[in-house]
Specification:
Elements lengths: L4 H31 L4 H10 L17 H14 L1 H12 L2 H4 L3 H8 L10 E2 L7 E6 L2 E6 L13 E9 L4 E9 L3 E3 L16 E3 L3 E5 L3 E3 H6 L15 H28 L16 H36 L6 H31 L11 H13 L6 H12 L25
Parallel strand pairs: 1-4
Antiparallel strand pairs: 2-3, 3-8, 4-5, 5-9, 6-7
Length: about 425
């Protein structure tokens, strides 16, 4: 998709501001890790770059950049601090959840002025302890806690996954809950992405009434069946292509940042056990750098192609000529598998950098070890099970249907009439 001059200029402005802020993000990273979250000051500073606005609708003053352009922003932020990259990724890539929830939710989320990410969600896979009961005029929700609530500390609303059952079997409902009705557990004690503040969430009370329009059958959100009043092609783009192309961008940014840091700290540094006085002059370093480059470049080529195809498919749908459901299913499966591979290759690239950075690279203050841990955490994300995603894509390649399950990454929804092969 070719961006307009206006969005290209806006992208350039956001990237310039992120690069200016980048050294500050890196400097604050250790403090954020120890706190288990970014400071409100850092959230405000990121907001001032425009990074939280890149995926917001134009009708409400958002930049509504293409997926390809959002990819660039997420990568640039992640280059300086993985946790900040994660927060921007979530804020950009999950805009399809409120957009899929209808016009009233869109108005609530994007209408008021706000500093920080607009969007957060939790427990949509759907390993949810949340329960929703339909009553006259709305829903009663209960249960919890809802886990891995990325961005929920700062977003005006968090969409909570809840299981409902009206007598015909359980199904997943996305419930939009205001910030002041939520409470946050101090339980984010993790190996990497420590500064994301992805804490577990409970309700302020035992139960909460939510008006009808804030609770949407998640199958409707995934299918985009509700009118949201938004006109841009972005809102017709495949949600998995949008979310996971940007997720790959986060891994790529982390690896690029680690590589830049390695080159910066290795000049003039001797290699123990050899006669090399300058690590950057050693052939073993050159071989390692070429392998690191190849892993990052392979991930980048795949992810950019997926972002570009996501934009193209959105433009087709917006023009009234959507691609066939079978193609969308195959593309979505491909994006998932290739994002998992991109995460793997970038983590491996950072592993090589870490192993060649000497013992001081294990220090808390060293960005390389932080990138090493953060990159591995991405590979462990619940939606990036490499083997499961590879099998599902391989099944489609072989003419079979993927495994049927509920949640964000389900693939059977694209071709609902197909015979399920087990």
């Amino acid at each position: 998709m070719v961006a307009t001059n206006d969005t290209s200029d806006r992208l350039a402005a956001v990237l310039e501001k992120v690069r200016e802020l980048g050294p500050t993000l890196r400097e604050r990273a250790l403090e954020a890790e120890r706190a288990g979250r970014q400071s409100d000051e850092t959230i405000a500073d990121i907001d001032a770059t425009g990074a939280f606005n890149v995926g917001s609708p134009a009708e409400f003053g958002g930049d509504e950049l293409s997926v390809q352009q959002q990819f660039d922003v997420v990568s640039e932020v992640a280059k300086w601090d993985g946790s900040c990259g994660w927060i921007v990724w979530v804020g950009a890539s999950t805009n399809w959840i409120p957009a899929g929830s209808g016009a009233r939710v869109v108005e609530e989320v994007y209408g008021p002025k706000w500093v920080g990410p607009r969007v957060a969600g939790s427990s949509h896979f759907p390993a949810s302890r949340g329960r929703a009961k339909r009553i006259e005029g709305g829903w009663i929700i209960s249960g919890g806690p809802w886990t891995f609530g990325s961005d929920s500390l700062w977003a005006p609303f968090t969409n909570l996954g809840c299981i409902a059952d009206d007598g015909e079997g359980p199904y997943l409902v996305g419930i939009q809950v205001p910030l002041d009705e939520l409470r946050f557990l101090d339980d984010w004690r993790v190996a990497g992405m420590r500064g994301t503040g992805s804490v577990s969430i409970t309700l302020a009370g035992e139960e909460l009434f939510v008006p009808d329009y804030r609770g949407v059958d998640f199958r409707g959100i995934l299918g985009g069946t509700l009118d949201n009043g938004l006109k841009g092609a972005l809102w017709k783009a495949p949600s998995l292509g949008w979310a996971f192309s940007l997720m790959a961008g986060m891994s790529i940014g982390l690896a690029q940042g680690a590589l830049e840091r390695f080159l910066e700290r290795s000049a003039g540094r001797p290699i123990r056990g050899t006669t090399y006085k300058n690590q950057l002059e050693a052939p073993l370093t050159h071989l390692m750098l070429a392998e690191v480059h190849s892993k990052i470049q392979s991930a980048t080529v795949m992810a950019r192609a997926n972002a570009d195809e996501t934009d193209r498919l959105g433009a087709l749908a917006a023009a009234g000529t959507p691609a066939a459901p079978e193609y969308i299913q195959m593309f979505s499966a491909r994006v998932l598998a290739e994002t998992a591979y991109a995460a793997k290759w970038c983590a491996e690239a950072i592993e090589l950098i870490q192993r060649n950075s000497g013992s001081t690279a294990i220090m808390e203050w060293e960005p390389i070890q932080r990138a090493w841990r953060d990159a591995r955490v991405i590979t462990l994300h619940g939606a990036l099970n490499l083997e499961a995603l590879s099998e599902n894509y391989g099944r489609l390649m072989a003419g079979l249907q993927p495994h049927k399950f509920a949640g964000i990454t389900t693939l059977d929804r694209f071709v609902p009439t197909a015979v399920q092969v087990t």
